[in-house]
């Protein structure tokens, strides 16, 4: 399905990574059937949907020219029945046309039909078109503010036309979904969609100059309907993502067991009504992380790292800030291909935590937050996805090789923490009991002294070490100081 | 909160809140990394940064929590707010609506966070983007002072992250207030506890305070 020599000349490939002197479209133009061949490979087979799902999950769309078509299928913007593609596409585009006309109209246009008492610029009447005009202006301003700071490092998003497209789509979506309106972060769910469509349009335009594309291709990849198609895809994505943006509060139902265990040591995130996203990230941390890595779970709980501190952004943006765009699109390929319910999100979340688990466990509150909120670069995104699939269904997915973040933590120390290497050895008389060899080998600075009248701030407390000897791959620490204390009697208070 | 007072090396959690696009992230980046860019992405949820300060003879660390403008809605700020010792509430002098939102932010803060002595945490008001030359709102200093008094701010500053105006001044001012609150608290509430000897000349009172 994947053509090896496609890799080098896709528009998604950042400039500078291409071989010098290589015409990106040379092969494509010479062999005009290549685009068509890929199309056939992807969509011609009778069982094509299952096959493109597999392609998405296993990361084989990285250089596809029809990624947007695959996404449309995953997101159910296109039906499985190919004979319906053209109709459905037409229908959705007409729908957006209508939506846009309804919401982005000048109120003065229809003003003649209204009583001037109601419809004047000073009227506070909710029915007044002027009132609507001012509300719209405010909403648009809010959206525009985030659109202006969308992928600021990419030239594509600095283009005024692109920005207007993004703003119009988000505005229409907000007006169509008055309960939710616009929430920060939606713009970064929309932007990759707009970009993927654009890339496919570009590739297709170059190719169609010499080739004879099919009617479906011509219609689906028509740049005239860029905005329409992006709206349809975004709306479908939001069907699943909507609750993660909602600030609607509801009482959380708790199981009897949860009640019993959580009450005596209730954390702030446990009490009171909760919004869906908070419930979700807490479930991930308290159930999935606990299931797959008890030690990590205990560690983050002991440091009182509420998952919403880092997890809200992870989930809302579907990891958009955690990976560079090229990798992000591969992650989205898998998330969308797997299911429109985005069920895989939770497992990618856990896989990401497990990737840095050694570093987390060796770190205090500050460094942990640094790692979680400025997630380290990941070498191989595919391994991460395999891990996520394996975590969800170990029977049907091969166990991926143990893959751990290995860099030293200096970066995170300077950004978020300066504690790890500060010795606490000189502090007060400590209850030093035994030597933990792995602690020494880590160079961790230990010591939660069990001082009777002292309680350390949670941010200052040191990691507990549970299962000695389980650490095979260790994060490399820069040992700038000698470890003077030799054990970490875990302070129960901390 | 109490455990904070026993820590020998001061680490203060400071919140930076205010409506979206008022320049919270820019202020933090200016303060912590001495840089300014127009290219910051919108903060989603929360972000944080650490600033190490030399305060008299000791080191003070500020953990700055950069909270997304839209997070005021909903229950989520509660988690970010706890353990905070001080706050900046920021508005954009060019946009009156962001000024109107200040009181809402302050109410949100006060309703979710109280010191054990029932006082609210030290909060400084920042009138940001004062380089834009449209600071109609803050031209009347007396009015602003009164506004701060009425609304429980310990003070206010005209700031510009772009031109590096008053950022560290405002931070120092806040730290001073946090320290003062802390000392009051130590004296009044827990007189029988060992208090940190902040000006102790003996080195290594708390070795963790000194970066080595």
TrEMBL record, chain A:
It comes from the Eukaryota. PROSITE patterns: TBC_RABGAP. GO terms for cellular component: autophagosome; endosome membrane. Residues 61-339 form the Rab-GAP TBC domain. Residues 1-29 are annotated as: Disordered. InterPro entries: Rab-GAP-TBC_dom (IPR000195), Rab-GAP_TBC_sf (IPR035969). Residues 1-12 have a biased composition (Basic and acidic residues). GO terms for molecular function: GTPase activator activity. GO terms for biological process: autophagy; protein transport. Keywords: Autophagy, Cytoplasmic vesicle, Endosome, GTPase activation, Membrane, Phosphoprotein, Protein transport, Transport. The keyword Glycosyltransferase does not apply. Its main location: cytoplasm. SMART domains: TBC. Interacts with MAP1LC3A, MAP1LC3B, MAP1LC3C, GABARAP, GABARAPL1, GABARAPL2. Interacts with VPS29 and VPS35; indicative for an association with retromer CSC subcomplex. MAP1LC3A and VPS29 compete for binding to TBC1D5. Interacts with AP2M1; indicative for an association with the AP2 complex. Interacts with ULK1 and ATG13 (phosphorylated); indicative for an association with the activated ULK1-ATG13-FIP200 complex. Interacts with ATG9A; the interactions seems to be restricted to the AP2-clathrin-associated fraction of ATG9A. This is TBC1 domain family member 5. The lineage of its organism: Eukaryota, Metazoa, Chordata, Craniata, Vertebrata.
Automatic annotation (TrEMBL), chain B:
It is found in: Endomembrane system; Membrane. CDD domains: Rab32_Rab38. Keywords: GTP-binding, Lipoprotein, Membrane, Nucleotide-binding, Prenylation, Signal. One of its GO terms (biological process) is endosome to lysosome transport. SUPFAM superfamilies: P-loop containing nucleoside triphosphate hydrolases. GO terms for cellular component: late endosome; lysosome; membrane; phagocytic vesicle; trans-Golgi network. InterPro entries: P-loop_NTPase, Rab29/Rab38/Rab32, Small_GTP-bd, Small_GTPase. It is a lipid-anchor. Residues 1-18 form the signal peptide. The keyword GTP-binding applies. It holds the Pfam family Ras. The keyword Signal applies. Its main location: membrane. GO terms for molecular function: GTP binding; GTPase activity. Belongs to the small GTPase superfamily. Rab family. PANTHER family: RAB FAMILY, RAS-RELATED PROTEIN RAB. The small GTPases Rab are key regulators in vesicle trafficking. This is Ras-related protein Rab. It comes from Hucho hucho (huchen).
